[in-house]
């Protein structure tokens, strides 16, 4: 049966009418937790260069990639090593990935990021650093629209300490396409919700991304999210859902293995680890008390990552 397509609103980050943009974000986050973002200021040329460098890394021999294998949640994760849906009994997800954490990490003596050999990939690090910085900037600008969408002061997420040295993680993803493995339950990325605040996703245009708006619905209905050239796909994560007492929805999504090779890049904008995420006053009342206790962002993230890589 053909899947239906999810029609998502397109939000203009540079719109002069910030109130309308904020209202559209509010509607999108209550409906599906997903929308497209345009006029974000990242040029097509930069996307192309980042995808090209990402491709060069994943094409390296496995021995070379294993030199920067994931440590402290940074670096390379080989195929099938991650299972986003821990309830699945089948193999792990059919993807390989590379994580780049915050560029200026003053909480540790040295930055923990790992980089592939400069001799092999001379443009890699500067290209990734450039893209990371630009996405962080987009995420910060977008978070002030989020604050407006929740009837808060534009600077709310700065005031609560979320965006003072936020936890920005760029994840490069490569879904290898047809591996000749016949497993009904093989996913590029199995069903999950993101853990943090806001995710900014760029894909190469190859399909496979799907969203399930009602996680408790039976049977679950999965809708395709289409690619729009130059637009970022934005979705919210579980910490935003906690902040809003589930008014904004962090929805399940997954990437099907379509047999076609696919590249994507997800940027997870998460609050500073010390930031306490607790129900916003505007999102609770006597009849709708907070559903979750306050939690330190760093503690929450650590536990979720532990379960993913268990
Ligand atoms: O590759 C994609 O399109 C989505 C990836 C994703 O959902 C994730 O990394 O959390
Ligand atoms: Fe995700």
Structure commentary:
It is a single chain. The protein is 26% helix and 21% strand. With 310 residues, the chain is an alpha+beta fold. The chain has an eight-stranded mixed β-sheet with strand order 1-2-10-7-12-5-4-3. A four-stranded antiparallel β-sheet has the order 6-11-8-9, with no helix packed on it. A two-stranded antiparallel sheet has the order 13-14. Strand 1, helix 1 and strand 2 (34-38) form a beta-alpha-beta unit. The longest helix has 26 residues, at 124-149. 2-oxoglutaric acid (AKG) binds next to strand 5, strand 7, strand 11 and strand 12.
List the helices and strands and how they pair.
Layout (H helix, E strand, L loop, with lengths): L9 E3 L5 H14 L2 E5 L5 H15 L3 H5 L8 E3 L18 E5 L23 H26 L6 H4 L7 E9 L11 E6 L5 E6 L5 E4 L10 E2 L7 E5 L1 H6 L8 E5 L5 E9 L5 E2 L17 E2 H12 L2
Parallel strand pairs: 1-2
Antiparallel strand pairs: 2-10, 3-4, 4-5, 5-12, 6-11, 7-10, 7-12, 8-9, 8-11, 13-14
List descriptors.
binds 2-oxoglutaric acid, 310 residues, alpha+beta, single chain, 14 strands, 4-stranded antiparallel β-sheet, 8-stranded mixed β-sheet
């Amino acid at each position: 049966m053909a899947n239906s397509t999810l029609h998502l609103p397109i939000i203009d980050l540079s719109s002069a009418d910030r109130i309308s943009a904020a209202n559209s974000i509010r509607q999108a986050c209550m409906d599906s937790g997903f929308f497209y973002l345009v006029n974000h200021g990242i040029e097509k040329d930069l996307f192309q260069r980042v995808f090209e460098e990402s491709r060069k890394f994943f094409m390296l021999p496995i021995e070379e990639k294993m030199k920067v294998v994931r440590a402290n949640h940074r670096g390379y994760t080989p195929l099938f090593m991650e299972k986003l849906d821990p309830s699945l009994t089948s193999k792990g997800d059919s993807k390989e990935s590379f994580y780049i954490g915050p560029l200026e990490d003053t909480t540790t003596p040295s930055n923990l990021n790992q980089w592939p050999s400069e001799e092999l990939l001379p443009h890699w690090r500067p290209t990734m650093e450039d893209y990371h910085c630009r996405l962080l900037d987009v995420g910060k600008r977008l978070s002030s629209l989020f604050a407006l969408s929740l009837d808060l002061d534009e600077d709310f997420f700065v005031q609560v300490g979320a965006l003072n040295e936020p936890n920005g993680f760029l994840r490069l993803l490569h879904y290898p396409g047809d591996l000749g493995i016949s497993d009904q339950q093989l996913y590029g990325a199995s069903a999950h919700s993101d853990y943090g605040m806001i995710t900014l996703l760029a894909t190469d245009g190859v399909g496979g991304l799907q969203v399930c708006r009602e996680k408790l619905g039976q049977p679950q209905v999965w809708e395709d999210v289409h690619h729009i050239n130059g637009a970022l796909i934005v979705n919210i994560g579980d910490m935003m859902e906690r902040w809003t007492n589930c008014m904004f929805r962090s929805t399940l999504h997954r990437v099907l293995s379509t047999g076609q090779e696919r590249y994507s890049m997800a940027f997870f904008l998460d609050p500073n680890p010390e930031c306490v995420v607790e129900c916003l006053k505007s999102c609770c009342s006597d009849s709708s008390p907070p559903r979750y206790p306050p939690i330190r962002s760093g503690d929450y993230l650590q536990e979720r990552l532990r379960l993913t890589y268990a």
